[in-house]
Specification:
Elements: H1 8-17, H2 22-25, H3 34-46, E1 52-56, H4 64-76, E2 80-84, H5 88-94, E3 99-102, E4 105-108
Parallel strand pairs: 1-2
Antiparallel strand pairs: 3-4
Length: 111
């Protein structure tokens, strides 16, 4: 279970930055669309006390404005972020180092 270390006000700001409307914030989680649930999940991570995020294809199911909003939050994230993505634009905007696995070794990707 994730526990928020942030105030309700900051939690609402993060939800809004992920493009959830005030009306969406007042819905029960079971009534949210798949994309809205993804945004809620990301918001829950950002207000928790974790300092390592491991994300697998975080842009799946998000529209372009939502991807751009997520990019901004991830760039500002102060913890460690490890993610996989086939979205080259997202990778270029968020990652500061790229790695890949070859055989049983992790190698740094050089551009």
């Amino acid at each position: 279970m994730l526990v928020s270390i942030q105030s309700e006000s900051l939690s609402r700001i993060i939800l809004a930055r992920l493009l959830l409307s005030e009306r969406d914030m007042n819905k029960k989680a079971k009534d949210l669309s798949g994309e809205e649930r993804m945004k809620l999940s990301f918001a829950m991570l950002f207000v928790s006390d974790v300092n390592l995020l491991i994300l697998d294809e975080p842009t799946n199911y998000l529209d372009i404005p939502s991807v751009e909003a997520l990019e901004k939050l991830l760039v500002e994230y102060e913890g460690t972020l490890i993610f996989t993505s086939h979205d080259k634009t997202f990778v270029d905007r968020v990652a500061n180092e790229m790695m890949y696995i070859e055989g049983a070794k992790i190698k740094t990707y050089c551009t």
